[in-house]
Every structure is written in C-alpha cells, then in structure tokens.
Design a protein that fits this description.
The protein has 182 residues and is mostly helical. Helix content is 55%, strand content 8%.
Length: 182
C-alpha cells in the first residue's frame, strides 16, 4: 500500500523535533516530545495553555501538567494573565532563555537543511502548501461515503453483514451487566 500523506507529515514533524531535541540534549536539556512541542509553541509566541492545547489537539489539563513539569525543572515560569485572572501564562525562564534562542536558530537551520536536501523549489512548494488555508477538516460522513454504501438487495434479503452497524452515538448499543435484562 502506498504511504499516506499524513505519515509523511508526521515524519517531517518528528524530523524537525529530533533535530531540536538533539541540539538541546547536547547542552544538557532533555525534553519529551510533548515538552518539545510546548517549547516550540512558546518560541512562536503562544503563552496561554488553552491556546497551546488547541494547537496541539490535546486537553488544557495535559498542557498545564507539561508546563508545571517544565516549571519544576526551571525551564519556564508561569504567572497570572493580567488580562484574565483565571488564566495563567507561561514564558521561558531566565535560565532557559539562551536555549530558547538556540531553538529558533535550530528550527531555521533545519529548514535550510531541508531545502538543501529536497531542493529549493520543492521546499517552496511545501511551505506554500502548508501555509494554505485547508478549510475545516472533512466530516466523517464525507470521508466514509463509500464505506456506508450498502447493496440494497442484500439488505432487503436480510443479510446481516450488509446492514449498517449500530453506533454508540445512536444509543443502539446498550451496556449491560451479565445477568441483567434489557
């Protein structure tokens, strides 16, 4: 089977992250991939946990936990947001600031290296494609139309395999304990 594009995109993200993590590790800074993604968001100017969570597609609680861990290690400081007393903002600590500047240099150098490896024209096309507005993600119904189509004759004939499966959302499945009566 041909490689799907999403795997190539993920491989690209990990390629950049590996370069970043290797450079930081050479300076004694060890990060998990999740911590690295948070550090990159801080580098790009995002300071609120909820916004970082939205960009990474995870919960605010998960990002808050990562930020607390980074704070405990002295990499970030967390303060109250002056515009919203319920919110907290994160920023690099004075100790980590030189590493943060190094992160930006590593990302730019990695981009230059990628352009050298794949060619400037391919790199420009990739940058343009990634910067384009892709619109909202397709709905599950749009992407699975062919899977939902059923041979009508088989359905009429009572072939259970051809019928649509019940879904959790529709409530057609009921969780029952052994011995309970529905």
């Amino acid at each position: 089977m041909d490689q799907v594009m999403v795997l190539g995109l993920m491989r690209g993200v990990y390629w950049f992250d590996d370069a970043l993590q290797d450079a930081l590790a050479s300076k004694g800074v060890r990060l998990t991939r999740a911590e690295s993604f948070v550090i990159i968001n801080l580098m790009l100017g995002e300071r609120r946990a909820i916004n970082i969570a939205r960009k990474l597609g995870v919960s605010r609680q998960a990002i808050s936990q990562i930020l607390r861990g980074l704070e405990a290690r002295g990499y970030v400081t967390i303060t109250q947001d002056p515009t919203d007393p319920r919110a907290r903002i994160a920023s690099y600590s004075a100790t980590f600031d030189p590493h943060a500047q190094m992160c930006a240099k590593i990302i730019r150098a990695s981009e230059r290296e990628l352009a050298r490896r794949i060619g400037k024209q391919a790199f420009a096309g990739l940058r343009e494609a990634l910067a384009a507005d892709w619109g909202p993600s397709p709905k599950a119904a749009e992407t699975s139309r062919s899977m939902r189509r059923q041979p009508q004759a088989a359905v009429r004939a009572g072939d259970r395999r051809a019928r649509a499966r019940p879904s959790w959302r529709s409530g057609e499945y009921r969780r029952q304990r052994p011995g309970s009566v529905s």
